UniProtKB/TrEMBL annotation:
It comes from the Eukaryota. Residues 107-385 form the Peptidase S9A N-terminal domain. Coiled coil: none annotated. GO terms for molecular function: serine-type endopeptidase activity. This is Prolyl endopeptidase like. Belongs to the peptidase S9A family. InterPro entries: Pept_S9A_N, Serine_Peptidase_S9A. GO terms for cellular component: cytoskeleton; Golgi apparatus.
Amino acid sequence: MHQKSKLFFQALKYSIPHLGKCMQKPHLNHCNFADHYYSRIKLKKYHLTKCLQNKPKISELARNIPSRSFSCKDFLPIKKENEKSLSENMDAFEKVRTKLETQPQEEYEIINAEVKHGGFVYYQEGCCLVRSKDEEADNDNYEVLFNLEELKLDQPFIDCIRVAPDEKYVAAKIRTEDSEASTCIIVKLSDQPVMEASFPNVSSFEWVKDEEDEDVLFYTFQRNLRCHDVYRATFGENKRNERFYTEKDPSYFVFLYLTKDSRFLTINIMNKTTSEVWLIDGLSPWDPPVLIQKRIHGVLYYVEHREDELYILTNVGEPTEFKLMRTAADTPAIMNWDLFFTMKRNTKVVDLDMFKDHCVLFLKHSNLLYVNVIGLADDSVRSLKVNFQWHPVAQF
């Protein structure tokens, strides 16, 4: 991805309330989230054209979703509560819009990989992986978890951080500027943190917890810049490391993604035109994975989860633009997918992010960028238009 557009998207995703996959699923107040992460964005020397002006006309919902019904007894108090929640969300949305519009000519640079989990923020400080209490993340009061110099790499930096659900372990992917090769370190969190394991050539990785409250790390192994193998590992007294899946078609690659609510780990197998997704139960990671839909040539799809429903971004059917569909998690096959939201003609989807009460679509239309926020409870749609000319070299 072109560096200018990449940096802008990173900044935008850190700035919009509840937006950005760097956060590991805490439930946060909209305004506090926006304030905290907007303040941590650094201005960069690049320039953008004017950002976030008039709202464009948006696509209608693809179909009418049945509205919720209330009893006469409960209707009034619930309505007031919903109006209050909607007002708070709108205030946060407009607050972020205003903040972004105050510096319309600047590009942004995000600090190194950073993850908030529990009451701590995990990040890189100098040559160290560190953590600090959330309220102290902007000062020098932090705990050193691992010194990257121990790896004896040339100018190493942390590319990605994942914290185990109960914070017994933290995993971090370490890279260097001049190489795509990476090392994943596993640090046991205690009074004296210690590196318990390291795995070479790791691409994507995610934690889940099994029925015995044991942390399980799933990761993909990269060979010749291609990922075909998925492993799972445990640590401590029951240490193990085993291959879980191997993709035999060399034209495909494999990556892992943990749904935003941590309910499912998805194994995504795809090439430029076709994809296949398997679900690993986040509560029973030793059970066999469940296939969403076997690969169909020309069909791409990506899966998120919310409240026992799968939200599927896919290009299946006509028109060929990506559309958002959904189905019950226990009936994931393609014949059960229901159309939920459609895009304008000639609109490309850059990204999808799912939250408790809404989802966010990053869109590209006529070389301009848009952010659509879809309310999942009331089917409302709010949109930000980004007057940033897209460069032809950018790829999606």
